[in-house]
Write a structure and sequence with these properties.
Number of strands of chain A: 2
Number of helices of chain A: 12
Organism (chain B): Nonomuraea harbinensis
InterPro entries (chain B): AAA+_ATPase (IPR003593), ABC_AA/LPS_Transport (IPR051120), ABC_transporter-like_ATP-bd (IPR003439), BCA_ABC_TP_C (IPR032823)
Strand content of chain B: 15-25%
Keywords (chain B): ATP-binding, Nucleotide-binding, Transport
Radius of gyration of chain B: 18 Å
Largest sheet of chain B: 6 strands, mixed
Mean pLDDT of chain A: 91
Distance between the termini of chain B: 29 Å
Protein name (chain B): ABC transporter ATP-binding protein
Strand order of the largest sheet of chain B: 6-7-8-3-9-10
Oligomer: heterodimer
Bound molecules: adenosine-5'-diphosphate, magnesium ion
Helix content of chain B: 25-40%
Low-confidence stretches of chain A: none
Strand content of chain A: under 5%
GO molecular function (chain B): ATP binding
Distance between the termini of chain A: 20 Å
Order of helices and strands of chain A: HHHHHEEHHHHHHH
Chain lengths: 314, 242
């Protein structure tokens, strides 16, 4: 517990220094506040994406390159229901989450399970293949046309001199709420305890009566449902197209490694850090890609802690 | 008869780890399995518990042929093993380790936690309840292995060298506990090198040597059996019958 408190203290110290630096560099408190707010709100969504990835990695030991494509499916489900049936985008969570849960379950049971314990190359080819299949299926079905979904009741909110659209605040709140729900599931339920046991020791798990194959499928399904939920939550903020999830997949990987492979708190902390870095990086390195600062921080953190912020040393 | 092996064979490459092993275990008894290192004792447990499939033979448990049943279903049905090299869930607390096993028969986590806490207290691990299992000393890890197995409410409990690595003082309560479990109606199969304990506890003894059954009978008869004595004297003097 002590090392957690000292790490949190160090983290806050670094964050304060970075924000102060950004303030000095931009010469504007409101520009800095805007970057912090936007960064945190976006970081919440990154956290949810990364949570799904880290859950799948932690329990199944699979690096899932199809995660972003599953997220794209969530976006399409929401966009089609909103434009076609006039459904409130946030209510479409009731469709996208079960849909992606079911799809994740089937994909693990019939495809991913075949590469369990196999080589990294086999897993990479399979999940990358699934991603390409999904992207091309979307391209075929809906063409490359981009779509946007407006939230009719969207309105800018003022927070500490900064402005955030209600849709961004809702995306953040929804993502954090779902991340919290996954955390409770993992720590407070019988199923969650079983999933953590499988992550810790799959051989021992079957001998205490756990159906490891079923738990692997359920975990992959839950991780994929996180991607689907994230897809729905960002739909009002992004342009929906077949490759819309790719960038989130890459950022998700960065967050997972930064936070510590398989660590759920690491995914949340990492998501917020990457969101902040992306926005504040624009102040430190104006005119550069926002990802430049993210990768710089990524490399620095890994030099200092190769196992990531919340990871266990190997 | 609660457990019966019929002509069970298991090979690793050219090595016959089990060679047409046949034996029966009566309900409510303690059956010891002894034999020199490499005799196939651990493999016997792996085949009974379902981690490894035999090439031939049948395994009958509680009146049913379980030869093709997956390991987790055998564990749920009450055919439970422990490991010589303990295999806890290291990142989970002692309580969660046992709760996972207790959950096999209970619907809610709350019920499973209550049952697990009782089992942990009984085994004498109460002081370690919330410690990560990976941080336990060796003796406590053995106790945890047993607590986890008991939480599954076994009908037949297969114990692989639970006394090995314990000091004589740590062994006594364990031996007492095994006797109590038998008195409660549980059936135990022990792989054990600590001969005085085997002689005190076992109702019957099975002797394996290079994968085959060398002898089977009551402890006193086994101790006098010249074939058994020869097999053991070929090994370390540690293993000699005491
Ligand atoms: N997974 C395995 N692969 C190959 N050989 C094995 C395996 N498990 C056990 N063996 C071999 O089978 C024989 C019996 O091993 P084991 O059952 O562990 O014996 P015991 O528990 O009686 O010491 C030994 O020769 C051992 O080397
Ligand atoms: Mg052995």
């Amino acid at each position: 517990m002590n090392h957690l408190i000292s790490r949190a203290g160090l983290g806050i110290l670094v964050a304060v220094a970075v924000v102060a630096g950004a303030w000095a560099r931009s010469g504007s408190g409101s520009v800095t506040a805007q970057a912090v707010l936007t960064g945190l709100l976006l970081g919440g969504v990154y956290a949810l994406v990364a949570m799904g990835l880290t859950l799948i990695f932690g329990v199944l030991d699979i690096v899932n390159f199809a995660h972003g494509a599953f997220m794209t499916l969530g976006m399409y489900a929401t966009a089609l229901l909103a434009t076609g049936a006039g459904l409130n985008p946030y209510l479409s969570l009731l469709v996208s989450v079960p849909l992606l849960f079911g799809l994740g379950y089937a994909v693990q049971r019939h495809l991913v399970s075949r590469t369990m314990g196999g080589s990294l190359a086999a897993q990479l080819l399979l999940t990358l293949g699934i991603a390409m299949l999904l992207e091309n299926a979307l391209l075929l079905a809906f063409s490359g046309d981009t779509r946007t979904v407006a939230v009719s009741f969207d309105t800018p909110l003022r927070v500490l001199g900064a402005v955030a659209d209600l849709s961004r605040v809702l995306a953040f709140a929804g993502a954090m709420g779902l991340a919290g729900a996954v955390w409770l599931l993992l720590t407070r339920t019988r199923l969650g305890t079983a999933i953590r046991a499988v992550a810790a020791n799959p051989e021992g798990a079957s001998l205490v009566g756990l159906d490891v194959r079923r738990l692997h499928a359920l975990t992959f399904a839950a991780g994929t449902a996180c991607a689907g939920a994230a897809g729905t939550l960002v739909t009002p903020l992004v342009t929906v197209e077949p490759t819309a999830g790719e960038l989130f997949n890459i950022i998700g990987f960065v967050v997972v490694v930064l936070g510590g492979l398989g660590s759920v708190p690491g995914a949340v902390a990492g998501g917020l850090i990457v969101g902040l870095t992306e926005q504040l990086g624009g102040i430190y390195l104006p005119g550069q890609s926002p990802l430049l600062a993210v990768f710089a921080v990524f490399v620095l953190v890994l030099l200092w802690r190769p196992q990531g912020l919340f990871g266990r040393p190997a | 008869m609660i457990l019966r092996m019929e002509g069970v064979s298991k090979a690793f490459g050219g090595l016959r780890a089990l060679d047409a092993v046949t034996f029966e275990v009566e309900r409510g008894t303690i059956h010891a399995v002894i034999g020199p290192n490499g005799a196939g004792k651990t493999t016997l447990f792996s085949v009974i518990s379902g981690e490894q499939r035999p090439e031939s033979g049948r395994i009958l448990f509680d009146g049913q042929d379980v030869t093709a049943r997956p390991a987790h279903l055998r564990a749920r049905a009450g055919l439970v093993r422990t490991f010589q090299l303990t295999r806890p869930f290291p990142a989970l607390s002692v309580l969660d380790n046992v709760t996972v096993a207790a959950g096999a028969h209970l619907r809610t986590r709350k019920e499973a936690v209550a049952a697990a806490t009782g089992t942990i207290e009984r085994i004498g691990l109460g002081a370690y309840l919330s410690r990560p299992a990976g941080e336990l000393p060796a003796a406590a890890r053995k106790q945890l292995e047993l607590a986890r197995a008991l939480a599954l409410r076994p009908k037949v409990l297969l114990l692989d060298e639970v006394l090995a690595g314990l000091t004589p003082a740590e062994r006594e309560p364990m031996i007492t506990l095994l006797g109590e479990l038998r008195a409660e109606g549980m059936t135990l199969v022990l792989v054990e090198h600590v001969m005085p304990a085997v002689m005190r506890l076992a109702d019957r003894v099975l002797v394996l040597d290079r994968g085959s059954v060398l002898a089977e009978g009551e402890p006193a008869a086994i101790a006098r059996d010249p074939r058994v004595v020869t097999a053991y004297l070929g090994e370390d003097s540690d293993d000699a019958l005491a």
